[in-house]
Amino acid sequence: MTETVTVIAEPSELLADSAGRIAGRIARRELSATEVMQAHLARIGEVNGILNAVVAMDAERALREAADVDRRLSLGDQPRTLTGVPITIKDSFDTDGLVSTAGTAGRRSHVPAHDATVVQRLRRAGAIVVGKTNTPELTMGSSTENSIYGRTLNPYDLSKSPAGSSGGSVAIVAAGGSALDIGSDTGGSIRNPAHVCGLAGLKPTVGRVPLTGHVVSFDFGFLGFLTQAGPIARWVDDLALALAVIAGPDDIDPFAVPVPLPDLQRRAETPLRVAWFTGNGHVSADAAVAATTRAAVAALADAGAVVSEAIPPLLSEIEEIYGRLRDADGAHCITSLLNRCGTTVFSERMRVRIARATPLQGAGVADLFERMYRLNSGMLAFMRQYDVLVCPPAPHPAQTSEELANSTYEDWVFQTAFNVTGWPAAVVRAGQTPEGLPVGVQIAAKPWREDLVLATARLIEDALGGYVPPKLVSSNGPTSA
Predict the structure, then answer these.
(1) Distance between CA 18 and CA 14 in Å, rounded?
(2) pTM to 2 decimals?
(3) I need a surface site. Which of 83, 156, 218, 361 has the fewest CB within 10 A?
(4) C-alpha to C-alpha distance for 199 and 202, rounded to whole angstroms
């Protein structure tokens, strides 16, 4: 008996390029939107049977829209920010005319009549949606799998998970099948997948981007503030490009705030003041992740930053505060959402989540929010001395789905800190493990300072290289010799 192995070629230069550069080449008519689209559709066909990242395709419409882009450019139309760029969208966002399941059985055949606000804005900026990417049920999972579409694999190691809940998003962007994706982040669901798949991902400030049309929306009880929508890309510049497109109130989401965007292309302030840590006194990163954080900090110091190892006060309380916030309503919001979706049979992971949720009564809720507000105030006071905070995204590099299923809130404390505070936080690739798994570093700043977050991420990307394409290897199992 022998094992057949299929090796998938690395993505071409075009398929590893940035969304912004692709848009520029189409605008200058160095490439046609049609040939760019055909290349991306071919790449999805090449890798998706292995990764199971894209779960619904809109190829015919995508090709029609690409041909229309070419026609309009030939007639002298002005290009837009993302003219002709093929993108995917996490399946938790509504897409007009394309099935949007959010990974839950009750929405297996749900086809929205309207786009989510972020999708509508991306289309208006010229992007072309080619398909939807996999997510755990209702985005509530640390790995990406559900009863409708199954499990998504990590393109850097097929035995590992791309994490969750934006696992399908990062898998196909890393593999070169999509230039950009939009994910959502309630407790690290953009940042941990970006970390373990070597990408750039941004969770904006709470209120920066409307959640209209996302399955976990602004009306998700008192927990809606934990969730933000944000971009996932290979390169940091694309995070800035996409955020400028999707940010701003839509007169539907009542919590979207009309705060002007800062200059997202600006360079870092001089001298940039950086606080950093690899552990919070309770949870520490493993050797490879800690070493990557130190390498990123050293690169910032070499660029002229003033770096100080410092742990924010009360950070060790985040694990408990976040866990109690998620469960404080006794899973009322989750069960209500399942009912609205028409889901009567749901995952074991969801069943456990609902069963363990212990509701808090009035005094308990008041105490929890008092602690959270004290934490947020203490974090702001700490940041008077610093511009950005640099730390690991998570204690570990990529793990298996089974390992992730046994994880606890402790494993996400570096990420959930910035869901609780609502601060902007990004992840960028900064290194790898001895086995070749990508390792990211996380950058956070005070509210509305996405410019500082992205400027710092660019410095790290420039110094340490950023995105490295995966080498996909698929084993088809033993066959007769």
Answers:
(1) 8
(2) 0.97
(3) 361
(4) 10
pLDDT at position 478? 46
Residues whose CB falls within 8 Å of the CB of residue 109, separated by 6 or more in sequence, listed in order: 99
* pLDDT score for 4: 65
402: CB partners within 8 A, 6+ apart:
none
C-alpha dihedral, 104 to 86 to 125 to 60, nearest 10°? -80
Active site residue 203: no
Helix H segments across 328-449? 332-341, 348-356, 362-382, 401-405, 413-421
From 92, 100, 142, 165, active-site residue: 165
Q: Where are the domains of the chain?
A: 2-479
Is 160 among the residues known to form the active site? no
| Omega of the bond leading into 271 within 30 degrees of 0 (cis) | yes
Mean pLDDT of all residues in 319-334: 92
Inter-CA distances, 181 with 201, 229, 336, 374, 435, Å: 10, 11, 28, 35, 27
Q: With contact defined as beta carbons under 8 Å apart, do 372 and 422 qualify?
A: no
Q: Report angle CA 222, 226, 230 to the nearest 5 degrees.
A: 140
Question: Which one of the listed residues 189, 217, 347, 401 is annotated catalytic?
Answer: 189
209 closest CA partner among 46, 450, 29? 450
Q: Can you list the pairs that 352-355 forms with residues at least 24 positions away whose Cβ atoms lie under 8 Å? A: 353/140
Q: At residue 193, does pLDDT exceed 60?
A: yes
Q: Which of 18, 90, 203, 347 is catalytic?
A: 90
Mean pLDDT in the chain? 95
pLDDT tens digit sequence for 253-271: 999 999 999 999 988 888 9
- Sheet with 228-233: strands ordered across: 54-57, 128-133, 86-90, 181-185, 228-233, 200-203, 425-432, 438-444, 388-391, 273-276, 306-309
165 is catalytic: yes
Query: Mean of the pLDDT values across residues 72-77?
Result: 98
pLDDT higher than threshold 80 for residue 2: no
Q: Name which of 2-16, 182-196, 346-360 the model is least confident about.
A: 2-16
Percent of the chain with pLDDT over 90: 90
CATH for 2-479, options being 3.90.1300.10, 3.30.2350.10, 1.10.10.10, 3.40.640.10:
3.90.1300.10
Structure tokens that stand for 311 in this block: 């742990």
| Three-state secondary-structure class, residue 31 | coil
Report whether the peptide linkage leading into residue 184 is cis, meaning its omega lies within 30 degrees of zero: no
